[in-house]
């Protein structure tokens, strides 16, 4: 939500590394413009039938909107030290202030989370784990969004080596693990927390099996349009279906998407990987997401005692999604 003012400011199809460099170096946006974009993005999601959001935040810019929003938020306060162990405590303390400043009213929740395997040192992982001692915590982590991520951990090669050098962060201490990046994350995260792996563009069957053997609280968030926006490719959803993975659907921010609409994500998946049944997509978009955020007691399915909201989709004659399908909020 906090990057809503970045809509249209970053070119499509650049690949993840140039995208990250552009976002990190973008500065000097007036706060009035930032807050206005946040308010409009929150309203856009509500009008698109969204009732709950797992929102990754690095600042407190979104707090006031979340406090008054009709949407229920789980704020993931994201932390990264670019794998510099000596900066871990300072980094944690800085983002802990953001965590402390996020309110928990209106059913909203929050947790401290690692950004990605390639940006979080072992020490920062430990500090994050220690902060998340409350029962029922959900954490998120970006996972295998580009092949360069696995190259770094498998061989200490690929674009991230130059990426770190360009920002003055040495990697002389880093040693390749010989395994894909998700294994580094699994080694350092707490399997007792619900864990939401985000993107998973390059994730393969062995990675999925390893994560699901590590914990029975694993969820996978796909952001199809964001993957197309940045890298022009998508995950292979058949891998996740075959492994019985619990998929959820997200959008990423407006920095890397044309809109904030779960329906548009469903339509993209249905169009480009048409073997995924509509009923499966519907569960990914509703109940699985609610369970991943710990909101399933009130949201995610139509059951006695719940208040999940109700949306109307105008499907085609075969009761399938089409390019013309729209969403109308009924409740």
Q: Detail the poorly predicted runs.
A: none
CATH topology: TIM Barrel
Through-space gap between termini: 23 Å
Largest pleated sheet: 4 strands, parallel
- The total of beta strands comes to 9
Structural class: alpha/beta
For the record, the CATH architecture stands as Alpha-Beta Barrel
Q: What would a concise description of this structure say?
A:
The chain is of the alpha/beta class. It is built from 14 helices and 9 strands.
Topology of helices and strands:
Layout lengths: L15 H10 L5 H17 L4 E6 L5 H6 L3 E8 L8 H14 L7 E6 L7 H10 L6 E6 L3 H9 L3 H8 L14 H8 L5 E6 L5 H10 L3 E5 L1 H7 L6 H6 L4 E3 L12 H11 L5 H8 L1 H7 L17 E3 L13 E3 L2
Parallel strand pairs: 1-2, 2-3, 4-5, 5-6, 6-7
Antiparallel strand pairs: 8-9
Overall description:
It is a single chain. The chain is of the alpha/beta class and 331 residues long. The chain has helices spanning 16-25, 31-47, 63-68, 88-101, 122-131, 147-155, 159-166, 181-188, 205-214, 224-230, 237-242, 262-272, 278-285, 287-293; strands at 52-57, 72-79, 109-114, 138-143, 194-199, 218-222, 247-249, 311-313, 327-329. It has a single domain (4-329), classed as TIM Barrel. It is 40% helix and 14% strand. The strands form 3 sheets. Strands 4-5-6-7 form a 4-stranded parallel β-sheet. The longest helix is centred in the N-terminal third of the chain and has 17 residues, at 31-47. The mean pLDDT is 97.
Write a concise keyword list for the protein shown above:
331 residues, alpha/beta, TIM Barrel, 40% helix, globular
